[in-house]
Structures are given as structure tokens and as C-alpha cells.
Amino acid sequence: MADLAEVPLVLSGGGWADYGLVDSGQGRKLERYGPYRFIRPEAQALWAPRLADWSADGEFVPGSDEGGGGRWRFDRPVAEGWPLAWQNGAEEVRFTASCTPFRHLGFFPDMAPVWEWMGGMLGGAGELSTLNLFGYTGVGTLALSVHGPVTHVDASKKSVAQARLNAEASAMSERPIRWIVDDAAKFAAREVRRGKRYDGIILDPPKFGRGPEGEVWRLEDHLAPLVADCRKLLDPKSRFLFLTVYAVRMSSLALAGLLDEVFADLPGTIEHGDLAVREEGAGGRLLPTAIFARWANPG
Question: Which domains does the chain have, with CATH numbers?
Fold first, then answer.
């Protein structure tokens, strides 16, 4: 039976050559993405900024409601897409960043310590099979592909197309990766019916979304059945399930409680807490970005 750790963790990462959290405060954050600097809203930055100069190439200005709308405002020219890279051990994962209408830049830098942790869970064990649900533009998929076959699933045809381009840019097109445009919940249910198994699963669901055929995803309604199906795709020899959740009024302990119920018959441990990014420079503060829960079974 998996052991539940009640005390929350903080899983944090810092910047690297192509990304950094420069400063944060008063509901905003200043980040560098390769040659550019951007300002984006960040509700959890309750403190005052450390720096007086927030010169940036662009800023995402949120809409007047809570629907997540808004627009980019640029003070200097910014390319429609530009190359970035993340070092994954001896490999370099290359991908394209861009200013999307959803305030993101084409990848989630706070996931870097998650990718590193998953690599540690899989490292040295030979060819292991993993599943990336809600895989977005595939940076995590490419990080996992060094350890064996990966199934990448996302409802957005555009995101999967970008993930393929990122694989080409990383010279990883020949890796055993299945690129699938599908509703994550429907795909997982079909995999259960097929009797499939995986050594690891990563779940990064949105609060709300739609599948390629108009399927509606609501986190509060659909997360528990999806986690139950993911459990059926794992067995006592599997290594992990990692679940991240953004922008919800929910505790990480609630996510851990769900895993504790669903994974009660498996060995290992269940942990939970916050994802965070540390500001650059001496005394850099931790900016929380998401909550997570994970089942780990090192074997």
C-alpha cells in the first residue's frame, strides 16, 4: 500500500541559459525568454518588486473579467517564434517560444524540475514506456524520450504539430514517440480497454478545455475518473504518476487524497505540494505557480 506523506513539499527550479524569472511583485512577473523580456500577470506575487527597472519587450495585459482573456502589448519588435533550449542531462531539448493568445510562451518553465525528477525515476532502467497526457508542445515528451517510448496526447492539433517541429529541432524525430491528437480522457479509457500498461504517466490538465470533437473537460468533474483510468494503466513495476494543476481553488492535499484512494493497492509513496520558480540573483524569492501530487515507486 502506498504511503501518504501529509507534509507538503516545494518542488522548485531556477533559471537556465534561455529562461529566468528576473523579478516579481504587485501581481506581475518579469521573465526572460532567450533574447526577450516579458511581463505577465501573476496573482500570487503579493509582495513588492525588488527591481526598479522592469524594461521589457512586451507585456500581457489581462482582460477586465475573470475569463482569462487579454492581449499582448509590445514596446519593441518581437519575432513570431524564436528558438530556445533546455539541457536534459547530456542532451539538449530545443523548442520554439512564441507569445500565445493565452498569455503563455509555448512551454511551461516551472515544469523543468518535474522533467528532471521523472528522468531520475526512469534513469538507468533501460527502455521504459511513458504517457504524457495534455502534452502541449512536447518539451516534457522529448525529455522523457531518452528513456524509451513515449505516447504524447493533446486535444490541440496545433500543439501536437508544434511538438513534432520541436522534435525535429532537437534531432529527435526518429525517437519512438506516438503523436496523438485526441481527448485525453477518451484516449486513456481506450488504452484501458486495450490492456495497455506504462512505466510512468504525467498529467498536466487545464481547469477547463475542449477536445478535438467538442468534448468538454472540467477539472472538478473529470479528474477523478481520469486518474482512476491512469491507475489501470500502471502496475506494481511502474515508476510514477505526476499530476499538476494550475489556477484552481484547491489544496495539493486534496490531489494527494485522490491518489491515496486510487493507488491504495500499489507500493510506493504519495507526495504533494507546490511547484515554484526561484527569482534570479542573491536572495531570490520562490514564486508558486501550481500544485502537484505524485505517486513514486522507485522499485
Answer: 3-15+81-296 (3.40.50.150)
